[in-house]
């Protein structure tokens, strides 16, 4: 067992590894964040992750320093994603404060009007990629079956079969979803 693989359970091995790499990790982190408190927290998080995941290190994939930077990259990226989600949530909440009752009623009408389109898209999600591509090119983009076949690099017969299947599956889905709604 090398010194590095012991870092997850041997305090002396961890301390030696930490002292050797803490400055490099701090430099890595501060190039990506501009808040000193966040940089210190993320540096600590990187080394906590090292303790938790040291057992996953594989020497045949490189040295511990490269692995450490992979851990650091994941920790920083996770924090940046978390912060982005928080900012999006805050902006959604702020946008809600600007809505009055008339705005909400108008949005509800638009949502109701678009419900059939959402149902169509859900049905299209059940199609294979090939079926969906032919259906979109013919039904939405107005291409002929032959032109759609050329665009997709398949034979016209293949495109016709895919279009036939797509239409049949869409019809079946829409009939079944309509039957579920009717009393």
UniProtKB/TrEMBL annotation:
UniProt superkingdom: Bacteria
Span of domain RNA polymerase sigma factor 70 region 4 type: 118-169
Gene3D superfamilies: 1.10.1740.10, Winged helix-like DNA-binding domain superfamily/Winged helix DNA-binding domain
Coiled-coil intervals: none
UniProt keyword Heme present: no
Domain RNA polymerase sigma-70 region: 17-85
CDD domains (UniProt xref): Sigma70_r4
InterPro entries: RNA_pol_sigma-70-like, RNA_pol_sigma-70_dom, RNA_pol_sigma70_r2, RNA_pol_sigma70_r4_t2, RNA_pol_sigma_r2, RNA_pol_sigma_r3/r4-like, WH-like_DNA-bd_sf
Alphabetic keyword roster: Sigma factor, Transcription, Transcription regulation
Assigned protein family: Belongs to the sigma-70 factor family. ECF subfamily.
Alphabetized PANTHER family for the sequence: RNA POLYMERASE ECF-TYPE SIGMA FACTO (PTHR43133), RNA POLYMERASE SIGMA-70 FACTOR ECF SUBFAMILY (PTHR43133:SF46)
Protein name: RNA polymerase sigma factor
Gene source species: Allokutzneria multivorans
Lineage summary: Bacteria, Bacillati, Actinomycetota, Actinomycetes, Pseudonocardiales
């Amino acid at each position: 067992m090398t010194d590095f693989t012991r870092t997850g359970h041997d305090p002396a091995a961890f301390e030696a590894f930490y002292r050797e790499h803490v400055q490099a990790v701090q430099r890595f982190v501060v190039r990506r964040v501009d808040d000193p408190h966040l940089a210190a927290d993320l540096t600590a998080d990187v080394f906590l992750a090292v303790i938790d995941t040291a057992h996953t290190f594989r020497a045949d994939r490189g040295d511990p320093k490269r692995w450490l930077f992979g851990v650091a990259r994941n920790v920083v990226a996770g924090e940046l994603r978390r912060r982005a989600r928080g900012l999006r949530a805050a902006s959604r909440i702020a946008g809600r404060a600007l809505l009055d009752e008339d705005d909400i009623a108008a949005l509800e009408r638009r949502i109701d009007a678009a419900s059939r389109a959402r149902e169509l898209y859900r049905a299209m999600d059940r199609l294979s990629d090939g079926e969906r591509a032919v259906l979109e090119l013919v039904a939405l983009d107005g291409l002929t079956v032959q032109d759609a076949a050329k665009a997709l690099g398949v034979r016209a017969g293949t495109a016709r079969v895919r279009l036939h299947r797509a239409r049949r599956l869409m019809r079946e889905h829409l009939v079944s979803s309509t039957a579920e709604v009717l009393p």
